[in-house]
Write a structure and sequence with these properties.
The protein is globular. It has about 425 residues and is an alpha+beta fold. Helices cover about 55% and strands about 10% of the residues.
Length: about 425
């Protein structure tokens, strides 16, 4: 039993974040570059990013600004300055900093280009003042600064040579599989899962905020309103969908409340946690915490195979985790939990990621509902058979098929998705 390794993994992958993590990562890179460049008048800022980063940073709301944009994210990082806040770098940003950032964007000194890389998560920020220049690179993880150069001198260089896919943890994760996850969830001392308690508290708070106020498309509020009117049943299924979607509504619209992210995504953190919490009402706290732990670990397990960013919607993965958690809560054994993964993979595979934006809340609602349906079907003793599509005899091989589709089969689709987004927004990004 690798209990300490599991606890360490949870601490690495469940991180408090404010706002969508792609523009936040751009802000971190810009803040770091600004921190190291010698003071002077900034005359040019160059941002280069991978397709997946640009896709997710293009249209999503930035906390505290009522606006969006890659240029703005970089400018906010420059004026927020404190790169030590990591994924909470935009917390408590001053109105004057926002105004200065908007002014910098209007001065047209920030350029954005497509990075020449096969990495899914890559950000490069170059800042030039009238007396100095600096360059910072983030790759693989949203706050993973791997290169810092100042006036041509290298201060830090931890770049990975594998330009296609690099996860420095992969060689240390031999202990991680579905069986070991289930064993850990059922045997770990509950007192060691305070992070999961915090995850539940933080993510519940932003979801309730999304029900109270009209954010984005108000997907969650709309469902809740129709429940109150009697158009939809006032039951656990609809409330779980409404509450989870409301959190995405708030987050995608730029709410100033943080979330506990999972595998670098706040929406994944919300949708892997909240459906399980809602279904946990009436169960004792320990059972709920273990179920949420299971949900988060299944999501992490799949994401480590697929990668942090993908052409496939991350909510379909976190909802798969939630389905496992709900199945566990409702008495499902190890076999049923694995069957619930099979049913989810046979259901949601192929849902594309076309960037972070208000519409993500609808996808979160769809995936949450699918998680509940799949758990119910599973608990009735039914599972999609291996003669169906990508489904194999066991869940592990099915997950491998899912990840192969995302990592290999969707490469051209990912390019096409971004091309459509850029054309629609009249944007041109050169390599």
């Amino acid at each position: 039993m690798e209990e300490e390794k599991f606890l360490s993994l949870l601490n690495e992958e469940l991180i408090i974040a404010l706002g969508c993590t792609e523009p936040t990562a751009i802000a971190i890179a810009a803040a770091t570059a600004r921190k190291y460049v010698i003071d002077g008048n900034i005359i040019h800022v160059k941002v280069k990013a991978s397709r997946n980063v640009i896709k997710n940073a293009l249209s999503v709301g930035i906390p505290g600004t009522d606006s969006c944009g890659i240029n703005l994210a970089a400018a906010l990082g420059i004026f927020a300055y404190n790169s030590d806040k990591n994924l909470q770098i935009l917390a408590n940003i001053k109105p004057s900093d926002i105004q200065n950032a908007i002014k910098m964007v209007k001065q047209d000194i920030i350029t954005v280009k497509l990075a020449d890389t096969n990495k899914k998560l890559y950000i490069e920020v170059f800042i030039e003042t009238d007396v100095s220049y600096s360059k910072v690179i983030i790759e693989d993880h949203h706050d993973n600064v791997v290169l810092i150069q100042v006036d041509g001198n290298t201060i830090k260089d931890n770049q990975c040579k594998d330009t296609v896919h690099s996860n420095p943890d992969n060689g240390q994760l031999d202990y991680l599989d579905l069986d070991s996850i289930l064993e850990f969830v059922q045997t770990v001392d509950i007192e060691k899962l305070d992070l999961i308690k915090q995850c539940i508290e933080i993510n519940t708070k932003i979801c309730l905020e999304g029900l109270r106020k009209p954010y984005g498309l108000s997907v969650g509020r709309s469902i809740k309103n129709k429940m109150e009117m009697g158009f939809l049943a006032d039951d656990t299924v609809n409330y779980a969908t409404a509450l989870t979607a409301a959190g995405s509504d708030a987050r995608m619209a730029g709410s100033s409340l943080p979330v506990m992210s999972n595998s670098g995504s706040g929406n994944q953190g919300i949708s892997t946690t909240i459906p399980v919490v809602v279904f946990g009402e009436g169960y004792d706290e320990e059972k709920i915490i273990r179920a949420v732990t299971l949900s988060n670990l299944v999501t992490i397990y799949i994401k480590l195979k697929l990668g942090r960013l993908s052409a496939l919607c991350g909510a379909s993965i976190s909802a798969t985790g939630a389905c496992c958690g709900i199945t566990y809560l409702m008495g499902g054994d190890e076999s049923k939990i694995k069957s619930s993964i099979q049913n989810m993979m046979g259901n949601l595979t192929g849902m594309i990621c076309d960037g972070a934006k208000a519409g993500c809340a609808l996808k979160v609602a769809t995936c949450t509902n699918a998680a509940i349906q799949s758990a119910i079907v599973t608990l009735e003793g039914n599972m999609i058979g291996s003669s169906n599509g990508i489904i194999e005899e066991n869940a592990v091989d099915t997950i491998e098929n899912f990840c192969t589709i995302g990592n290999i089969g969707m490469i051209e689709a990912d390019k096409l998705i971004l091309d459509i987004m850029l054309k629609k927004n009249n944007c041109t990004l050169k390599d």
